Amino acid sequence: MNCKEAEKMIPAFLVKQLNNRDLNEFLMHLEDCPECMEELTIQYLVMIGTSLIEEGKSFNLRKALNDLLSDAWKTVQKWKLLVFASYIVELITFVIMAIILIVVIFV
User: What is the mean pLDDT of residues 31-56?
Assistant: First the structure.
């Protein structure tokens, strides 16, 4: 993923509308790109922080953004675990079907 692609995803990320695959790529890009992380921070402040400030609420920008990123990483980890589990179930199903087929043919 390049910076242009990542920057286009920021609004969708902030409203939690990225699919798991895009979310994973987006987060991985952010880890290696301080420029995109800075852009995310700015857009987060504009989108979320401005409304909170207008309502008279105070907030810790860094903590709020870190919490959002942490939740996103948890989502990606759960998705990866589910994908892995589905592969395992598929493999087990294949093995069982192969055993049944062998039993039917040779018994």
Answer: 88
